[in-house]
DNA sequence: GCCCGTCATAAGCATTCGTGATGCGAGGTG
DNA sequence: CACCTCGCATCACGAATGCTTATGACGGGC
């Protein structure tokens, strides 16, 4: 299970073709064929169906493992490269959209900052692989509880902000007058699924603990990145939205009611490569210093 | 960063010697020397000090990455080997000591079971690498919240039991008369640290959220595996112990007071290789079926 | 000061790995 | 229906990698 073989395997699957993969990797088609053959004999398994080229069930499993492995490998290399590299004068930050709010934006240095908005799950990856010097992720957690992040590499996470959660409903909604809402009251409601602009509902489904698939049905799925649009959708009656309270206010036609049970907050965390906090100076230190104080 | 090179690197560090590592790996000393040299030139870093042989700071970092990588690699191989292997007639269970209680023990099949008690953090590893067919881990979490387990490989975790937590104190202790205790009341107390027999206090320190190092000081460290001994130590006044309530009762000279705040429970989870739940029959299915019902 | 243990380096050799050429089977085309 | 074409498998060869043996360099112990 040489990483090179895994690398060609995943590209073959991704492109659905040996020859295409060979082109992309700079090999000949023959080499790719031999790589796959080597993997299959090594594992004594058939990994791919040819014609069409698609992974077998065993191949699917290998794909999961291979992805994680190659990621960790890249992360390791990036991490160790940092050791030798000269301290950077610029700051690359990867952030999930909702992790960008007054507190985090204010901490950014005045110059030399590149800010990249990426999906939530890609933030740890970006930091681990060195694409970004630091990351900002948001998510839902119990108060002062750390987020559950996939550990692709040794990263340190520190909480930088916690805000209440609010349910956004049309002003005409029967529950709009409440001062607080319990999740139990909303299990049967229709929700807006917005993985990027909003907060994924998986966590709610898990917390609620009901049988899988029950509750929190999706009315409409919004794949854009703008929370105000999401709130507007809620105002228009397309379903309920879940947002950090500060983002949910002042939306025409919508009312934001804080979620009071279960006790959950919208939490933002700063992600750094483990060991990077030792750096005493530079833009990274400036940024993290301002965030932690 | 060939896994072979990493493998020799970690053994060199572990044994503190090139020659020893060569012997263990079945290489010549020369090969080991070249492996290390290859790594160092590839990363353009000095990884080891010679004489004595010890990792440099950069080497320490590599060690972390290498460990995780090799683990995942073994896990991947084990997982895919399972695909080809014939269904097993026996059941190997790796369990942390406190995960073994009435509920889990009752679910074990009558014959063909090997039960291995391992430290908490080794359970996921054992399941991932195929040393065990299934795992039982215990830990502390908020009610109906999953445990935080290191993801060494795609594993599925399902909760099988939750019990209240109790603080064990000498009957003569001023707080022994309470019906419930808040963690805040106990920050300044002396505690028994018992990573195997008891519940590690890290989680409490994290939940309490105080400044690092403050609170929950350790009076005595017990490295044995018997919770009753731990409770007896608490009875003898060596410090407070934290145990699942059922284990903390009926200890002479000690009183168990439930922990009421923060709301935490002692949770036991079943760990299976992801995808293994598909198996319809055999001892694994019997075990998991009984646990989930 | 000599010797022994340990790591580094050099040369030789076997194995591995990638390339180019060729074979083979499936699907499309006239 | 024969033929062509496209795409993966296989083969043989040259290059490169990796391991071994042999030797050198350096420290620490007696």
Count the beta strands of chain A.
12
Oligomeric nature of the chains: homodimer
Task: List the chains of the largest interface with their residue counts.
Answer: A-B, 39 and 39 residues
Structural class of chain A: alpha/beta
Can you summarize the main beta sheet of chain A? Answer: 8 strands, mixed
The sequence of SSEs of chain A as H and E is: HHHEEHEHEHEEEEHEHEHEEH
Secondary structure layout plus pairing:
2 copies of one chain form a homodimer.
Chain A lengths: L2 H13 L2 H8 L3 H15 L4 E2 L4 E2 L1 H28 L6 E5 L6 H6 L5 E5 L4 H7 L5 E8 L13 E16 L10 E2 L7 E4 L8 H7 L8 E5 L5 H9 L5 E4 H4 L5 E8 L3 E9 L9 H10 L1
Parallel strand pairs in A: 3-4, 3-5, 7-11, 8-9
Antiparallel strand pairs in A: 1-2, 5-12, 6-10, 6-11, 6-12
Chain B binds a DNA duplex (30 and 30 nucleotides) through helix 3.
How would you describe the overall organization of this protein?
The structure is a homodimer of 293-residue chains. With 293 residues, chain A is an alpha/beta fold. Chain A is globular and about 70 Å long. Chain A folds into three domains: 3-84, Arc Repressor Mutant, subunit A; 91-161 and 267-292, D-Maltodextrin-Binding Protein, domain 2 (3-Layer(aba) Sandwich); 162-264, Periplasmic binding protein-like II (D-Maltodextrin-Binding Protein, domain 2, 3-Layer(aba) Sandwich). In chain A, helix 5 (102-107) links the parallel strand 3 and strand 4. Chain A has helices at residues 3-15, 18-25, 29-43, 57-84, 102-107, 122-128, 202-208, 227-235, 245-248, 283-292; strands at 48-49, 54-55, 91-95, 113-117, 134-141, 155-170, 181-182, 190-193, 217-221, 241-244, 254-261, 265-273. In chain A, the strands form three sheets. In chain A, strands 3, 4, 5, 6, 7, 10, 11 and 12 form an eight-stranded mixed β-sheet that branches. A two-stranded antiparallel sheet of chain A has the order 1-2. Chain A has a two-stranded parallel ribbon with strand order 8-9. Chain A starts with a helix and ends with a helix. In chain A, helix 1 (3-15) packs across helix 3 (29-43), helix 1 (3-15) packs across helix 4 and helix 2 (18-25) packs across helix 3 (29-43). The mean pLDDT of chain A is 88. In chain A, 37% of the residues lie in helices and 24% in strands. The A-B interface holds A 1-3, 43-45, 57-58, 61-62, 64-66, 68-69, 72-73, 75-77, 79-81, 83-84, 142, 144-146, 148, 150-151, 153-154, 206-207, 209, 274-275 and B 1-3, 43-45, 57-58, 61-62, 64-66, 68-69, 72-73, 75-77, 79-81, 83-84, 142, 144-146, 148, 150-151, 153-154, 206-207, 209, 274-275. The structure holds a DNA duplex (30 and 30 nucleotides).
